[in-house]
Amino acid sequence: MDIVRKLYQAAKELLERRYPTGWGGAAAMYTIEDEVLTSVAPEVINASTELCIETGAILEAHKYNTKITHSICVVRDNENEEFKVLTPCGVCQERLIYWGRDVKVAVSSNDEKSLLFKTLEEVQPHHWSKAYKEEELFD
Fold it and tell me: Enzyme group, top EC level (predicted)?
């Protein structure tokens, strides 16, 4: 199974297990060591303390000192609805660019059957990091 399908399947399985009914969302990320890290958003009482679905997997990558190469976020409105892929928000793009502009992220598409991945460079071609030399920011 290719990386794209593997990540989609991992996110979908976690979503279905963690949120069998109602709304649900899960993220899956692939690392340079061929590992899959997954996460969900923590449930909170105060909305100002919410974190993105991808945050847990990003923190795991930092904990294990590994590089993320691919990321996907999958949601569904309820158990009767189709799954949707969400492009990472600006904050998650900032979190992911730590590993370089070549990190591939799944992006939203109207075509439910195709999974489309783009590099952060493609998603954000005018990112602020362009003001610096590559070697100043990325290992």
Answer: hydrolase
Token representation of residue 123: 């998603």
Q: What is the DSSP track for 78-119?
A: STTSPPEE-PPPHHHHHHHGGG-TT-EEEE--S-TT--EEEE
Radius of gyration over alpha carbons of the chain, in Å? 15
- With cut-offs at 50, 70 and 90, classify the pLDDT of residue 46: very high
List alpha helices for the chain, DSSP H. Answer: 3-18, 55-63, 90-96, 120-123, 134-137
CA angle 31, 78, 70 (to 5 degrees): 15
Rounded Cα distance between 81 and 138, Å, is: 40
pTM for this structure?
0.92
Q: Does residue 10 sit in helix, strand or coil?
A: helix
Rounded Cα distance between 70 and 85, Å, is 14
- Alpha-carbon gap, residue 3 to 45, rounded angstroms: 35
pLDDT tens digits along 110-128: 766 789 999 999 999 999 9
Contacts of 9 (CB under 8 A, 6+ apart): 1
Q: Is residue 125 classed as helix, strand or coil in its secondary structure?
A: coil
